[in-house]
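Example for tutorial group B:
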């Protein structure tokens, strides 16, 4: 229900009812907004004389756009709506695969649940803090980012977030394609020439064809309208919970209960456990770090701060419950089959008959489409459109997202638990960490929650968010400083550097924490050096 509510509002423009930013010749004509609770401390509405306005919103049509502040009449999302949104995002194959990967890397079920729970508490804090100004002002991420990075510099974090979203779109589409593969006739699935990976591509022709088929099916839904997908989203959460419960019940019966599963000794003890724990913790934070960056795109529709806090508090609970299900089922496969099967699609192909297969395809397709639309299309498409609203529409931005999803070669990222956790999740968490660190440091420490909403839509040189040519150099330097210590470890992990210092390896294994703290600290120091606070325009 919540994904339906959020997507319906995030993707459907309300042209006539949106707030319009008009320039006024004198400051005496400016309307004054009531002081909002919690944020901001003292909102400023001072406008520059004759500023050149940025396009307010990406357009879904020639007369509609989607980045203007959400008016109070449209801020209707309740705590339950946001909680349901998280159910729809959590219950999916990547979340299951992440849980199974922890077992595959040697953790016990209890160790895995504890790791995921702690990571999601960290994510929750970032979600609540990042969403707060969006709830107060009704602003999406591309607009809020202008306050920190500048009216032009905001494109940098938006595009970085978009590229990671494109990668996730590819991963989800590959998962959906593998589900389609299960439906194919056995004779076709056993024809060896179609199962041999193509040199250079790294994927088998038949698997790649299934991937493209599912990719095209999703794209056709996105390009031709959202009404059908909204109806699917409305019922996806309860259906997926039922299917997950059924799989959990199968594992319980087949393994003779969970007592044996939970009592299995961990394969990692002492120093070996901590060597895996910190990368796994960072990977779990990185798993939701993208949504933590662009959560304003959804939170802007919340009724109040209390609704967004209570609604998002469901993330650790839902993720912990689904992780337990994934870990319990994955651990049970060692008891049932004699070896661990961390891939749910492979597991579903091993159990039951045709009816089970069809049901599994339905559940996987439902989870993939709803998650992909909500988490991996909205932010990238908005980012591309925000760069050039006159050149791109939302549909064109979605097409670019889908094409880049293929270019990311998701079959390589999912080739093993190690590549998924250590290469993909850890790698991009080094990009999400600095963005989050700089944004939170700027809003809460440097500007102390002050925000001039009208100036966010102005490119006037005297605007407080114009900085240096539209770019906040301090934010750019701080973001680069956060990424720099992670690069050697990443290059070593992908095999481009044969050896690096152990310090760089440690930094990479804790990429999100290291990059987040360094970027936030450097930004605060640079702002203090130039006078302590971001400049504000004189009234």
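The residue assignment follows.
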């Amino acid at each position: 229900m919540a994904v339906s509510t959020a997507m319906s509002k995030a993707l459907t423009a309300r042209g006539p009812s949106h707030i319009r930013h008009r320039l006024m010749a004198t400051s005496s004509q400016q309307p004054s907004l009531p002081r909002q609770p919690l944020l901001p401390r003292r909102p400023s509405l001072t406008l520059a004389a004759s500023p050149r306005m940025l396009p307010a919103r990406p357009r879904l049509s020639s007369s509609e756009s989607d980045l203007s502040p959400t008016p109070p009449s449209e801020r209707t999302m309740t705590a339950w709506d946001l909680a349901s949104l998280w159910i729809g995002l959590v219950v999916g194959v990547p979340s299951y695969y992440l849980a199974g990967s922890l077992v595959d890397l040697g953790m016990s079920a209890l160790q895995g649940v504890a790791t995921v729970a702690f990571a999601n508490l960290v994510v929750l804090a970032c979600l609540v803090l990042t969403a707060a100004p969006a709830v107060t002002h009704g602003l999406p991420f591309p607009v809020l980012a202008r306050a920190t990075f500048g009216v032009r510099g905001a494109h940098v974090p938006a595009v970085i977030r978009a590229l990671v979203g494109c990668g996730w779109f590819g991963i989800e589409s590959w998962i959906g394609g593998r589900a389609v593969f299960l439906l194919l006739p056995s004779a076709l699935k056993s024809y060896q020439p179609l199962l041999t990976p193509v040199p250079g591509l790294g994927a088998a022709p038949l698997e790649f064809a299934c991937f493209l088929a599912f990719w095209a099916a999703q794209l056709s839904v996105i390009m031709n309208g959202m009404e059908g997908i909204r109806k699917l989203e409305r019922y996806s959460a309860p259906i997926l919970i039922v299917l997950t419960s059924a799989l959990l019940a199968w594992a319980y019966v087949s393994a003779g209960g969970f007592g044996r599963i939970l009592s299995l000794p961990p394969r990692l003890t002492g120093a070996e456990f901590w060597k895996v724990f910190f990368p796994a913790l960072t990977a779990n934070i990185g798993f939701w770090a993208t949504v933590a960056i662009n959560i304003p795109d959804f939170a802007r529709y919340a009724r109040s701060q209390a609704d967004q806090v209570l609604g998002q508090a469901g993330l650790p609970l839902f993720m912990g419950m689904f992780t337990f299900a994934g870990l319990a089922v994955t651990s049970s496969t060692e008891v049932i089959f004699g070896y661990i099967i961390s891939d749910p699609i492979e597991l579903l192909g091993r159990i039951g008959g045709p009816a089970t297969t069809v049901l599994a395809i339905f559940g996987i397709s439902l989870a993939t489409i709803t998650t992909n639309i909500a988490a991996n299309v909205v932010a990238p498409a908005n980012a591309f459109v925000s760069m050039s609203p006159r050149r791109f529409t939302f549909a064109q931005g979605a097409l670019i997202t889908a094409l880049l999803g293929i270019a990311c070669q998701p079959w390589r990222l999912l080739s093993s638990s190690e590549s998924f956790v250590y290469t993909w999740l850890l790698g991009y968490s080094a990009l999400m960490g600095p963005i989050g660190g700089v944004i939170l440091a700027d809003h809460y420490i440097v500007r102390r929650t002050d925000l001039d909403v009208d100036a966010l839509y102005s490119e006037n040189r005297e605007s407080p968010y114009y900085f240096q040519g539209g770019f906040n150099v301090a934010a750019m330097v701080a973001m680069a400083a956060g990424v720099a210590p992670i690069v050697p470890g990443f290059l070593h992990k992908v095999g481009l550097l044969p050896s690096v210092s152990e310090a760089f390896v440690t930094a990479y294994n804790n990429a999100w924490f290291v990059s987040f703290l360094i970027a936030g600290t450097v930004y605060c120091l640079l702002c203090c050096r130039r006078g302590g606070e971001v400049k504000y325009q004189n009234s």
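Residues 489 and 495 are 10 Å apart (CA to CA). Compare this with the pattern of hydrophobic and polar residues in the output above.
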